[in-house]
Write a sequence for this structure.
């Protein structure tokens, strides 16, 4: 690979990688290797060709971060000096099986992740060799131990379940790919991923699985001629410490990425684009519609929002969003947390739920000629809002599943402190947003750390 041919490569970081390879291979030629027509030994040519081929589909955070030598090590301090510019190379978006086969044959994808979600909200699953997935996994999925639906935050096995226990031996369930969710995970090296349903050995949806619970409620609503659209607002804190460093520090006195409050403040938000911009681009390139991101009212706190969709897809995307954020942050030597209240003296992180009901033709059934204060709405809207509020106390175990969740509910902290509805009041648990076709209910009670499949099924129950 000559310097002349390297110059035609558009990705600057890939240029730098190849130039470093040239420097090491041809140091015995001193400055001669800079000429465009240097004669190469057969062995050297093979090495350069190997480097070119193997880096073509590397994810951008691996190509451009401190993954190679310190010669091209751009640390976080240097990245703060300007807005980070990143390119997402290789395959993108949602995939069909035919498209996956094509990319596997080309070497653009060699790994397929089969993922499902536990009751805490984390992904679990397996990484498949792409060829083996196409041969076996497409038809049969994979097995996993059913204890995964009985664990707590630290992977401790909780006892007392009828269907899964030591007495029953903790057998397997089946992870069955839902191919409508098959997509490229552009932030990972040559990797695709697919969300799985959990089935028992007879092929039925396992009732205890989070995705099965939501599916059941969606089917009941469908039988009534109803469908629901929803969107999530997702907030998080960013830290300069890596996950390993955070663990060694016992998660105390970590350094937030921001050093003053950056709510809506574009200058501070620009400094934090090192992570946020990458995640926006990777989510979009992976087939997830991104709306926007903004600073929030905490040091290093941000919000990144994704566009509304049906509740099953929104729940899937919510889990992928968090996985992407954590893995991109890890590649940068940073960390993020989705705790509801990581700092007592700062704003908590919420995950507001926006929801509306529609008929089979897509008409918003919340619109109407009735009045609810200043809101023009249907009677269905009134009853739905009233029912959601009435049963909120019974469902708090899902909306606020941890002790930390309740630390978020403080007055003058942007978290709701009253079970009331309002048109535009951020201290109320429920807020009415939009009008006419965009009329919807915003539930402001959930903190960020909750299981989205579980909380999305509640209003349909």
């Amino acid at each position: 690979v000559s310097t002349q041919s390297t110059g035609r490569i558009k990705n600057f970081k890939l240029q730098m990688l190849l130039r470093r390879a040239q420097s090491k291979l041809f140091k015995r030629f001193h400055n001669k290797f800079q000429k465009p027509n240097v004669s190469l030994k057969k062995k050297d040519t093979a090495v350069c060709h190997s480097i070119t081929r193997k880096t073509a589909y590397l994810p951008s955070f691996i190509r451009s971060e401190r993954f190679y030598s310190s010669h091209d090590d751009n640390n976080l301090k240097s990245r703060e000096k300007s807005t980070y510019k990143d390119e997402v190379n290789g395959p993108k978006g949602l995939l069909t099986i035919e498209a996956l086969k094509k990319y596997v044959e080309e070497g653009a994808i060699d790994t397929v992740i089969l993922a499902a979600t536990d009751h805490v909200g984390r992904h679990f699953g397996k990484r498949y060799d792409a060829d083996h997935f196409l041969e076996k996994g497409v038809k049969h999925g994979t097995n996993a131990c059913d204890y995964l639906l009985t664990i707590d935050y630290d992977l401790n096995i909780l006892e007392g379940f009828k269907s899964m226990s030591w007495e029953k031996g903790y057998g397997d369930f089946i992870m069955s790919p839902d191919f409508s969710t098959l997509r490229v995970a552009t932030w990972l090296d040559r990797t695709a991923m697919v969300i799985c349903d959990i089935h028992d050995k007879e092929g039925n949806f396992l009732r205890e699985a989070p995705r099965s619970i939501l599916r059941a409620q969606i089917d009941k609503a469908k039988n009534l001629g109803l469908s629901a659209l929803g969107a999530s607002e997702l907030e998080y804190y960013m830290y300069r410490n890596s996950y390993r460093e955070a663990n060694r520090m016992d998660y105390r006195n970590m350094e937030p990425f921001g050093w003053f409050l950056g709510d809506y403040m574009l200058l501070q938000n620009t400094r934090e684009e090192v992570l946020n911009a990458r995640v926006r681009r990777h989510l979009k390139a992976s087939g997830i519609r991104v709306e926007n991101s903004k600073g929030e009212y905490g040091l290093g706190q941000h919000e990144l929002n994704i566009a509304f969709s049906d509740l099953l897809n929104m729940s899937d995307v919510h889990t992928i969003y968090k996985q992407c954020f954590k893995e991109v942050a890890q590649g940068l030597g940073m960390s993020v947390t989705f705790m509801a209240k990581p700092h007592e003296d700062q704003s908590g992180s919420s995950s507001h739920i926006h929801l509306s009901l529609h008929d089979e033709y897509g008409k918003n059934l919340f619109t109407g000629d009735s009045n609810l204060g200043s809101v023009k709405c249907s009677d269905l809207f009134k009853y739905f809002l009233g029912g959601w509020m009435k049963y909120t106390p019974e469902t708090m175990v899902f909306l606020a599943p941890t002790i930390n969740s309740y630390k978020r509910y403080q007055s003058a902290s942007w978290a709701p402190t009253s079970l009331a509805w309002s048109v535009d009041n951020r201290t109320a648990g429920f807020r009415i947003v939009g009008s006419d076709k965009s009329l919807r209910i915003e539930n402001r009670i959930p903190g960020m750390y909750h299981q989205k499949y579980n909380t999305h099924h509640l209003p349909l129950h």
Remarks:
- The longest helix spans residues 311-331.
- The two ends are 62 Å apart (CA to CA).
- The chain has a mean pLDDT of 82.
- The chain has 16 helices and 17 strands.
